[in-house]
Design brief:
single chain; alpha/beta; 2 domains; six-stranded parallel sheet; 6 strands; about 15% strand
């Protein structure tokens, strides 16, 4: 399967370089490049790529807001933030917005390729350049890593709602609910429903005992 990727960065030279880096791999194809966050949201909605590589600092909607909108409207698309910002707080904000990957521009190289493959498969990826800074509080290890939509869906799941029932309540498709469910469980490192129920009880997200 070829992974279709959208690149969003307002620096044309960097964008072209990342595109060449990705397309040197036969399993990856860049289907669109954009220079601002609004275009990223619109193009992703139209093309539904498997992955997005997103800069944070862009005109006409910054990357974190674009990430939030894409995560809500195209939950099956894995988003990797490619940024110059390496603070643990920024990484946590990116994951909370809905990103699955985070790579520093200064150490991109083949990390971008690995990140795209990983997030397209629905798994989180943190580049080595930022891993040490967030290891103490890994963005995939707790409730802070969940997006607002994932926090809506979690209590419905643990309270016994089916994908179809949760979808009807939230105005989503059952497939989107299933994608959110799988993603939030992967972020939390939880493999089964009983463990998810215990997590929800511990964090006051369900009345089940």
């Amino acid at each position: 399967m070829v992974i279709r990727v959208l690149l969003a960065d307002d620096h044309g030279v960097l964008r072209d370089g990342v595109q060449r880096l990705l397309e040197a791999n036969p399993d990856i194809k860049v289907v669109a490049t954009v220079g601002n966050g609004r275009e990223a949201v619109e193009k992703t909605a139209a093309l539904q790529p498997e992955a997005v590589v997103m800069d944070i600092s862009m005109p006409d909607m910054h990357g974190l807001e674009a990430t939030r909108r894409i995560a809500d409207r195209a939950p099956a698309t894995g988003i990797t933030i490619l940024s110059m910002h390496s603070s643990a707080e920024m990484v946590r904000e990116a994951f909370a917005a809905g990103a699955l990957g985070y790579v520093l521009k200064e150490s991109a190289g083949d990390e971008v390729v690995r990140a795209v493959r990983t997030v397209a498969a629905g798994r989180p990826f943190v580049g080595e350049g930022v891993a040490d800074k967030v290891r103490a509080e890994h963005p995939g290890s707790g409730i802070a890593s969940l997006t607002a939509r994932e926090r809506e869906i979690l209590p419905l799941i643990v309270n016994g709602k089916s994908n179809a029932e949760a979808a009807a309540m939230l105005g989503l498709s059952p497939r989107s609910v299933e994608t959110y469910r799988l993603r939030l469980m992967q972020k939390l490192g939880i493999q089964d429903l009983p463990t998810l129920v215990k997590f929800a009880i511990r964090h006051g997200m369900t009345t089940l005992e």
